[in-house]
Automatic annotation (TrEMBL):
Compartment annotation: Cytoplasm
Keyword hit for Repressor: yes
GO molecular function: mRNA 5'-UTR binding
Protein family per UniProt: Belongs to the CsrA/RsmA family.
Location, primary (coarse class): cytoplasm
Short name of any one Pfam family annotated for the protein: CsrA
Subunit field text: Homodimer; the beta-strands of each monomer intercalate to form a hydrophobic core, while the alpha-helices form wings that extend away from the core.
Function, in words: A translational regulator that binds mRNA to regulate translation initiation and/or mRNA stability. Usually binds in the 5'-UTR at or near the Shine-Dalgarno sequence preventing ribosome-binding, thus repressing translation. Its main target seems to be the major flagellin gene, while its function is anatagonized by FliW.
Source organism of the structure: Allobacillus salarius
Keywords for the protein's UniProt record, in alphabetical order: Bacterial flagellum biogenesis, Cytoplasm, Repressor, RNA-binding, Translation regulation
A GO cellular component annotation in the UniProt record: cytosol
Protein known as: Translational regulator CsrA
PANTHER family: CARBON STORAGE REGULATOR
Protein's GO biological process: bacterial-type flagellum organization; mRNA catabolic process; negative regulation of translational initiation; regulation of bacterial-type flagellum assembly; regulation of carbohydrate metabolic process
């Protein structure tokens, strides 16, 4: 993991198209601005994990439904 120190107003560039900017520091919270193309999904990690889990469950249920339909035929 790369660890960088930035001050309010300073940025980090990721590749050619993603910029992270420190917008504010308030107590123990840091506010980040993220500039990324519309085709790049940006989520908080806990939300991303929920999306992954929901996709796994949906995929598993589709496979189960498919197998059940095969058994009926």
């Amino acid at each position: 993991m790369l660890v960088l120190t930035r001050k309010v107003g300073e940025s980090i560039q990721i590749g050619d198209v993603i910029t992270l900017k420190v917008v504010a520091v308030e107590g123990d919270q840091i506010k980040l601005g993220i500039d990324a193309p519309k085709d790049v999904d940006v989520h908080r990690s806990e939300i991303y994990e929920q999306i992954i889990e929901a996709n796994k469950q949906a995929s598993n249920s589709k496979v189960k439904d498919f197998l059940e339909n095969l058994k009926k035929e």
